[in-house]
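Subject: for your reference before the review

Hello V.,

The reviewers asked for a structural picture of the protein, and I figured it would be easier to keep everything in one thread rather than splitting it across files. Below is the amino acid sequence we used in the manuscript, unchanged from the supplementary table.
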Amino acid sequence: QLQLVESGGGLVQPGGSLRLSCAASGSPLGYHAIGWFRQAPGKEREGVSCISRSDGSTYYADSVKGRFTISRDNAENTVYLQMNSLKPEDTGVYYCAAPPSWGTCSHEAEYWGQGTQVTVSS
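And here is what came back from the structure prediction:
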C-alpha cells in the first residue's frame, strides 16, 4: 500500500521560496499520478498541482501558475513542489495525495500524506 510523507514546510517571508517533498513508500511512486493540495484555516481544501503517471504532464491551479513547479524523481520515489514568489494567501497545510495506480490527475485521491505547514508572513 502506498504511503506518502510530506516535508519541507516552514515559515517564509512574502516573495520567498520553499521546496516541498513528498516521499513514497510501499509502492513505486512511478505507478501513480501525484497531486498537491492545500487547506487554509477556515477554507476548503483545494488542488494546487498534479503530475501524471505516464508522460509527466503537469497541471496547476490558476492561483499558482508561473510560481509553482511540480516535478518527480521516480528513482528517488519523491515528488517535489517548488514554490517561488510566495504570497500570504499561499499559507496553509499542504498535502500530497495519489489516486489508485490506474487513476489519473482527474481521479479522486485515495492515498494522502499527513501534511506540512506552510506559513507566508512578514
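For the response letter, the relevant points are probably these. The longest strand covers residues 18-25. DSSP finds no helices and eleven strands in the chain.

Happy to draft the paragraph if you're swamped.

O.
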